[in-house]
Specification:
Elements: E1 10-24, E2 43-44, E3 49-54, E4 58-61, E5 68-83
Parallel strand pairs: 2-4
Antiparallel strand pairs: 1-3, 1-4, 1-5
Amino acid sequence: GEVHSHKEWTAVVMVVSGAATVRTPGTPDKGMKAGTTNEFGGVLVGKGESHRVGKGDVLIIPPDAPHSYHDIEEPFRYMVIETP
């Protein structure tokens, strides 16, 4: 549950098992609009949002967007793809 961010890359996160609440208390610095759905069905996570995610869900977290995972249901496993 620690708040963290990824410098200079976008995280495409696919939940493989379990569930968690993803919180984003900060704002992406690239001018990207939170809540936008892309062509792959992922949702861009942005300022002050909370989303319950589970197996099969895909998140897109922009560079420098603070986020954290809470209320985790084990086993919570996810795959992160770093994109420019």
